[in-house]
Amino acid sequence: IAENAVECLHNEAYDKPYNLQNLNHEGMIFMGGRKTESLGGKWRFTLDLHDTGLRQKWFQIEPFDHETCTNPYDYDPHSGEEMTVPSCWQMEREKYFYFEGSAWYTRELDYQPEQEGENIFLRIGAANYDCKIFLNHEYVGNHYGGSTPFFADFTGRLKTGRNLVMICVNNARTEDRIPMRNNDWFNYGGIHREIELVRTPKNYIKDLFIYLVPNGQYNTIHAEVTTVGETASVELTIEELGIQQTLSVEGGFASIDIPASPELWSPETPKLYNVKVSANDGDVVTDRVGFREIRVDGTTILLNGKSIYLRGINCHEDDEKLGRITNEYDIRRRFEHAKELNCNYMRLAHYPHHELAAQIADEVGIMLWEEIPVYWSIAFHSDQTRRDGKNQMLELIKRGRNRASTIIWSVGNENADTDERLEFMTDLVEATRSTDPTRLVSAACLVNHAKMKIEDRLADHLDIIGLNEYYGWYEEDFNDLLVLGENSAPTKPVVISETGAEGMLGANAPKKGAFSEEYMANVYRQQTEFLPNLDYIKGFTPWILYDFRAERRQNPYQHGYNCKGLIGSDKQTRKAAFFVLRDFYAKLAQEEK
Ligand code: GCB
């Protein structure tokens, strides 16, 4: 203890040993229908503004002996305030509303082995941002990134009976994180997605990647299976297609091309097939998978060989009462609102949303753009940031690359066109493509205002150019958009990844001018009248479906909300612009028929 106390006072590098980033995409396990044991519920909780916990090594504390009081630590992990997991701490207690820093979660865990030689992992769906895990007084590892899942291997570390789990989560905004200090959504903190135990047999299936080979023929399904241990073969079954194939596993890997002509997935026909993979020595995983091909040809986007226009809307993961916590009801409502707008597409901004979103999109037939928060001016020069970005992208891809609805991975949003950014992005695009050859890569680029044209060196590396433009709002002169349209002649499809204006609801809302519903609707009228004239524009995703919480929005109307939603933050009240967009998309959908 004396030693700890000294360290606590003097050691400025106290957190170094805990920043291993060893919980990353390499440790991910394909969940495919596996049974899990939830660790959700009440955990003991404390804030830790000074990171005293890491300095004093709170995770080493044995239960307090109140008789002798031999443990002069500043926290008692065995008693104290409770916190619901998953949750965003801001939403649980008002006093934590603006808290940014470290907090500790502690609970007991009773473990009984179920089968000889089993592996046991802790899976966290997401925790914002740095999450350090301790088991039975020892450090296990940490994960960076607030929106992707990670696994900690508890195999061989758990005792039969009682165990102690402690988790330290830090949501500070720093220069080298992704996103960095400055952005436009609320910095919710905590373990905000499911936390659960996953058991596998000794030998297990680690990954399954299955897709329609994008060769324009729609006649081959490709599957890749990764295993851990001594599995010799796996059997792949898609009953409805009459597929039952045995693959022999070598060096933990098996792959196969299977002739097949599945009914193709599309928003109109969101057909999914049950896929099952069984290992010769017992492990089984399943998935529900759609087969489709997405590609571009010149400025055209082709879904299953047919030219499409992306009728979209942006969406954050945000809720007035729950923050970033979402659930099936919330996600289905989101897609229902999109369908009411006649959308066939949604951009999940600006970070990986809950994995249920893509599963439900598969089922209801909404195409998705998914992204990681490489947003504005992150530390493009930093190796650590680069590693973090690539890892977040690979985690997102590995989590969801069997989802037919996801057609685009986006690598960035509104980053200035510097050499450092170009290098960072080239690397990221390359990693994205090599991990998943079945989707398009995009990024939300900016207009070159000096030249008044669409110009960004990153565009050379993308399949689709996303363009955020706010003519009629931040850029007041709408005629500039006409000039921009004429000056640009991109050779790739352009999707308007953002445009919009704020419009207030309620009795105190302005009746005309900026921030009125009418002004907002007018921006939508102008945008939707102009855009069909540019034939390289192949999609439109205004900003945004619902009003959302954002600390930086503090004018007298906003009260901490970005109010560019077509629907208010109550997720019910439609604004005038909602109907403008709905009618525009109805017309486009009609023309497409
Ligand atoms: C943008 C950003 C988005 C903001 C939006 C706005 O360009 O990409 O995150 O919320 O503008 O409302 O200003």
Report on this structure.
The mean pLDDT is 96. Strands 23-24-25-26-27-30-31-32 form an 8-stranded parallel beta barrel, surrounded by 5 helices. A 6-stranded antiparallel β-sheet has the order 3-2-4-10-7-8, with no helix packed on it. Strands 1-12-5-9 form a 4-stranded antiparallel β-sheet, with no helix packed on it. It has 593 residues and is an alpha+beta fold. The chain has 3 domains: 2-200, Sandwich (Jelly Rolls), CATH 2.60.120; 215-292, Sandwich (Immunoglobulin-like); 310-592, TIM Barrel (Alpha-Beta Barrel). The structure holds (2S,3S,4S,5R)-3,4,5-trihydroxy-6-oxo-oxane-2-carboxylic acid. (2S,3S,4S,5R)-3,4,5-trihydroxy-6-oxo-oxane-2-carboxylic acid binds next to loops.
CATH architect. name of the largest domain: Alpha-Beta Barrel
CATH topology of the largest domain: TIM Barrel
- Largest β sheet strand count, sense and barrel closure: 8 strands, parallel, barrel
SS summary, helix count? 10
Radius of gyration (CA) equals 25 Å
- Flag low-confidence runs: none
Beta fraction: 25-35%
Broad shape: globular
Q: So, the CATH homologous superfamily of the largest domain?
A: Glycosidases
Strand order of the largest sheet: 23-24-25-26-27-30-31-32
Mean pLDDT: 96
Q: Structural class of the secondary elements? A: alpha+beta
DSSP summary, beta strand count: 34
How far apart are the first and last residues' alpha carbons, in Å?
74 Å
Distinct small molecules: (2S,3S,4S,5R)-3,4,5-trihydroxy-6-oxo-oxane-2-carboxylic acid
Structurally, the number of domains stands at: 3
Highest CATH level, the class of the largest domain: Alpha Beta
What portion of residues is helical? 10-25%
